Amino acid sequence: MTQQEIEEWLEHIPVFAVTDSNGAGVVLRPENDTSVFYFFLNPNQANATLTQLKTANDEMDLKVSAFSLGKIWFNLLQSDKEVILKQPGEEDGSGESTNNVEYRLVPDTRDLLGARMLLTMTPEDGEKLKESGGMTPEMAQAAIKKAMEESPKFKQTYNEIPVFTIAQMRMQKQAAEGDADKEPVTLLPMYFSMQNMVGTWQEFMKQAPSDIQGVEPAINLMSLHDLVNMMQKESEIDWRHVVLVPLAPSSSGESALSGATPAAADPMAQMGGATLGDD
């Protein structure tokens, strides 16, 4: 797939960031002199960052803005374009020009932990789970400890985005209006949320014939960055028949999502933001 095709493939996925009232990105310095701009897949995490910043400086007029992942994937996450950093309150035209801003894409913490647990759970662990009829608090604590210490991937809290899929699951995309003579397209869904994926599978199995209702889902896990790299190479897989499913907002996430402001189509127009966290 071309870069443009990949951008279109990612375009419907929203990500969230803290900006000022004009939509200019807020750059933080969490580690000494490192300038960092965070994009969050979960709007609740963006809102938590917003709350922290407002607590530290309630005079700043900040908000959560929504961006398209397709618009920022190559333009920001995979580039070192020059931006202007300004201190809060500085006028336009002032500020420091730099290309050393690090852009971090942050997955939902629950899905990051879920990915680590998938990678560290053994068949023996699965048997113990079946024998006990469910996960006890002790088993959960041991599984989390093992996942945090032994996972071979997804060790960072950013830029390692887990994507989940169930091998047996498919969805159909109906033909557009006016193309009634065309057959529906069968798609393989890939999820950012393991909980959302498993919930969809369970609903599907409730409606399935009785002879297949006991089928265990074959859960597969990939990194989004690895996935995009594969899409840029020759492959037998037709990636146009694969669809990414955004995070399904929870009841609290819906309010966070509704409060997010869509950003400009050109994300670079939003990157002139203030630098916070300086001593």
Automatic annotation (TrEMBL):
<keyword id="KW-0150">Chloroplast</keyword>
<keyword id="KW-0934">Plastid</keyword>
<dbReference type="GO" id="GO:0009507">
    <property type="term" value="C:chloroplast"/>
</dbReference>
<dbReference type="Pfam" id="PF04278">
    <property type="entry name" value="Tic22"/>
</dbReference>
<protein>
    <submittedName>
        <fullName>Uncharacterized protein</fullName>
    </submittedName>
</protein>
<dbReference type="InterPro" id="IPR007378">
    <property type="entry name" value="Tic22-like"/>
</dbReference>
<dbReference type="GO" id="GO:0015031">
    <property type="term" value="P:protein transport"/>
</dbReference>
<feature type="region of interest" description="Disordered">
    <location>
        <begin position="254"/>
        <end position="279"/>
    </location>
</feature>
